[in-house]
Specification:
homodimer; alpha/beta; 30% helix; 347 residues; Quinone Oxidoreductase, Chain A, domain 1; Rossmann fold; seven-stranded mixed β-sheet
């Protein structure tokens, strides 16, 4: 089969690789119908996260089960399924508690020796615990498939951030970060009943999506000017709930400074650097909580799925460029240069 | 009247100061029956927190109302009351929500122009919002008065930490810090139903109190050795809930490293330095939350008071040295040299 590999920074290739086979009785093999490129894939692309030469990549995909191992009970060939961005056994203490990202048998797509999502097929470890069945007729609905694909990462991650930030009825929510996760954070906050949603961003294409997703206000300023603008919008108090979907020291500092006393930051931006952007004295004096991390999207899919199926939740607008498998390297380039927000891959 | 003043680092005096008088119609004047010295007072004592020459000090006290301003409705002369460590109006948005430490009219005892608790009397701003009435007959019960005094700070602060850490039924709780707040954190965790409470500490007098308060395990090691010991006690997983009652980079690092995936740190140690002790990558990968800050003890007093009155909650053992007002400078010396855990003052 053909799959995307990374050979060096900025050197993405699509090449022939061995067909995936069942290796463990709990495996399944899945034919990929839709995959995509994640903002976090760019860290590998830019050489900021180390990869071995020829390593696979891609952690967001959905497709059709082709084959199952002898111990797979809940799935059969022909099932349409979506994969979360990590696999998990579904039975350990952490999985039982819903923290599938801490599964004792969990792992990442594209790690050494494992398939990635940006290819024609994927061997899925712990298939029963990992994959979530979708209605078979969704396979024929192009728009719906795209929306469902977002459940593999960005929609669940936005939901995790919104939960961590305590977004809900009557709350004012700010979203730091105008990437696909931040935009899904807007959607999630609206879904959870937030009264007011302030999106920070200066790229009109993205802030337009934020408004479409439910943002009531857009703040285009940055740094201290953004903080001042948000204080003015909130009667000087700041926001109950702040979604941090960037992961830099500066974005964390902004998040702390725009949170209302007693409020919370839901952080899902992969942290670059330590906690030096967190002024603990400010957090202490104002009782600001920090919650979040790598999102256990496997747990959230069953909750979010019905809303996506009936159209109430539609994250599909975050995909603004579609490529075939051979176009994946161009897709990376487009996302790196910010000419694309999120790239959909149809193998 | 006589009151404690601070003139320079290590220069505490007890001297004549003007008698407090009603200045605002919302004031009360309170005659102090019991006060005490807080670990956080030591930062001023050691010169690590700046004070003006002659500034008052002490933020934990209870006593008898002597006089009330014309707009004070809920209190009258002769009432026995306890004061939380900050005053608050009881009516602003934050007070209504229970975050009395963020009160828009709030302030600290002993700040410039205000009385401190380590004296014969105190002018109390916003008396209706600040003071909590106690049963009159408690005034004659020496042991009970001491226990009630802990409601002004350490017991409520320990409770805040335990709530922030998510302590509760079935949870394993670790307590970093063997001072009065950490010990009250043990009491609070037990009160909230924690299954297992691991106290970190090497001073036997203190760990004995921790055991009396409900600690099921004591870890005397420090740093990485303590982390290893706790991992061994918890089947390699760490603790659901960690109370951080120190505030240094090292203690925060320990707290992060002993928290179970998906768990929470309740931090109430006044932070020294920024968030550099917080490894955000670890917190992200393992979904560790950080919650806490300056404790809104005014909000907690009504909840904790019945338990103290009926003896189910008795924080009084944290007081291990009693002095009169003239003995306050010696009390500071004893706490600074760690020969006393917490000093009770009977003016």
């Amino acid at each position: 089969m053909r799959a995307t590999t990374i050979h060096a920074p900025f050197d993405m290739r699509v090449e022939d690789v061995p067909d995936p086979k069942i290796q463990q009785p709990t495996d399944a093999v899945l034919r990929v119908l839709r995959a995509c490129i994640c903002g976090s894939d760019l860290w590998a692309y830019r050489g900021e996260a180390a990869r071995e030469k020829g390593q696979r990549i891609g952690h967001e995909f959905l497709g059709i089960v082709e084959e199952t191992g002898s111990e797979v009970g809940g799935l059969k060939a022909g099932d349409l399924v979506v994969a979360p961005f990590m696999w998990s056994d579904g039975t350990c203490d952490y999985c039982t508690e819903g923290l599938t990202t801490s599964c004792v048998h969990g792992g990442f797509w594209g790690s050494v020796g494992h398939d990635g999502g940006q290819g024609e097929a994927v061997r899925v470890p712990h298939a029963d615990g990992t994959l979530v069945k979708l209605p078979a007729d969704a396979a024929g609905d192009d728009h719906l498939l795209t929306a469902l694909l977002a459940l593999s990462d960005v929609m669940g991650t936005g939901h995790h951030a919104a939960l961590g930030a305590g977004a809900g009825k009557g709350k004012t929510v700010a979203v730091v970060g105008d990437g696909a996760v931040g935009l899904c954070g807007v959607l999630a906050a609206r879904r959870l009943g937030a009264e007011r949603i302030i999106a920070l961003g200066r790229h009109e294409v993205r802030t337009d999506i934020a408004k479409r997703f439910g943002a009531t206000d857009v703040v285009a300023e940055r740094g201290e000017a953004a903080e001042a603008a948000i204080r003015e919008l909130t009667g000087g108090q700041g926001c109950h709930s702040v979604i941090e979907a960037v992961g830099t020291e500066q974005s964390m500092r902004t998040a702390v400074n725009i949170t209302r006393d007693g409020g919370a930051i839901g952080f899902v931006g992969v942290p670059h650097g330590s906690g030096t952007g967190l002024d603990l004295s400010v957090m202490f004096d104002r009782n600001i909580a920090l919650r979040g991390g790598v999102a256990p999207v496997r747990t959230y899919i069953p909750e979010l799925l019905p809303d996506v199926l009936d159209g109430r939740l539609d994250p599909s607008p975050v995909f603004d460029l579609t490529v075939g498998l051979d176009g994946v390297p161009d897709g990376y380039k487009a996302m790196d240069e910010r000419t694309a927000l999120k790239v959909l891959v149809k193998p």
